Amino acid sequence: MSSVPVLMYSTPSCPYCRMAESLLRSKGVTPEQIRIDRDPQQRQVMTTRSHGRHTVPQIFIGEQHVGGYDDLAALDKKGLLDGLLRGKS
């Protein structure tokens, strides 16, 4: 479904990361994942890109910072996630 790239900063032990990935996969999207546990420098990149957030997941659809799993699920509940994934804000 996605016509825009989806990037998710994550760790393997994070249940919210798995829930976010599951929700995105249910939409036909496989997010690119950056594991901040494997590359500590990426944690700083994530924190900067997400305007100070330091928890995972942090999800970006295109260049737009969506937030974490709760934010992603709220967009889906409002019916806005599909449009974002198609590149329509």
From TrEMBL:
GO CC field: cytoplasm
GO molecular function, one term: glutathione disulfide oxidoreductase activity
Matching Gene3D superfamilies: Glutaredoxin (3.40.30.10)
GO BP terms: cell redox homeostasis; cellular response to oxidative stress
Keywords in alphabetical order: Cytoplasm, Disulfide bond, Electron transport, Redox-active center, Transport
Official protein name in the record: Glutaredoxin
Gene name for this UniProt entry: grxC
Entry's family note: Belongs to the glutaredoxin family.
Role description: Has a glutathione-disulfide oxidoreductase activity in the presence of NADPH and glutathione reductase. Reduces low molecular weight disulfides and proteins.
Domain Glutaredoxin intervals: 6-66
Pfam families: Glutaredoxin
Classification via CDD domains: GRX_GRXb_1_3_like
Organism superkingdom: Bacteria
